[in-house]
Write a structure and sequence with these properties.
InterPro entries: Ribosomal_L11_MeTrfase_PrmA, Ribosomal_PrmA_MeTrfase, SAM-dependent_MTases_sf. It catalyses: L-lysyl-[protein] + 3 S-adenosyl-L-methionine = N(6),N(6),N(6)-trimethyl-L-lysyl-[protein] + 3 S-adenosyl-L-homocysteine + 3 H(+). By secondary structure, the chain is α/β, with parallel strands linked by helices. It folds into 2 domains: 78 residues, Alpha-Beta Plaits, CATH 3.30.70; 161 residues, Vaccinia Virus protein VP39 (Rossmann fold, 3-Layer(aba) Sandwich). Helices cover 34% and strands 31% of the residues. The chain has a 7-stranded mixed beta sheet with strand order 10-9-8-11-12-14-13, with helices on both faces. Strands 2-3-1-4 form a 4-stranded antiparallel beta sheet. A 3-stranded mixed beta sheet has the order 5-6-7. It is globular, with a radius of gyration of 21 Å. About 2% of the residues have low confidence.
Amino acid sequence: MTTQTRLFLTAGKIEAGRVFAMLERAFEEDGLPISSSEIDEDREIFEVSVYTFEPDEIEARMRDALGSDMFGLELHREQVPDIDWVAHSLEGLKPVRAGRFFVHGSHDRAKRRINDLAIEIDAGQAFGTGHHGTTSGCLDMIGEVIRRDHPQNALDLGTGSAVLAIGIAKLAPIPVLATDIDPVAVAVARENVVKNGVAARVKTETATGFHHPAMRLAAPFDLIVANILARPLMQLAPEMRRHLAYGGSLILSGILESQREKVLAAYRIQGLFHQKTLHREGWVTLHLKSRATY
């Protein structure tokens, strides 16, 4: 089996950003995959990685690009098997039930029941197959909120595979705007929306935060769902408040249990108050409203 090598360094946020920029310039004509990912959110520690089939040559060029002392950072190697990750993940991917929702891959269509709200999502390039605790928690909360509040429109911010937007559209005949910062994710989301038969209700757009004309046209929203990460959720709190209809609901996830109080505090300042928390596998899903209802 052909193996790829990941060459990576670990550094703080500012230093990692500098390293990433220097490596991006050094390898811009080579087409090598270069990534920067946060591995410790509380301490703001990042890994900067370069993927190659020629590790000795690329390591020498990395050292040349970063200088002989490499900013005092240690360069590590890791072998990455050449695996068809989509097929590999489908092998062990079992259907997920969350309330009335039944999230499944195309290989499990036969397991759908008559009263299921079936959502077909295959593992792929966009996050969200229903198997992560944040996604299943959001689906459960969406079911509760829609049954009780009957929202007239909705926003799925950071839609990924569009699993949550599809769930909303299947449960209620309302317009749903599904946005993501990643154009690849939006393309996958659009395919999933069509495949699940809700293209007439769900509109997909590439957008950073709330900066898109579609947001202004559709707001205010009776329901906003955002399954991203705690820090961007806290940063977006003022914009969330501005785009939420009075009495509307926010469903937030991508939040570790240890981050719950910080997120709630950021939204309390904006006049958005905790209604309910669901716990799943160390993650929490929060329901907030601009006024208390229960």
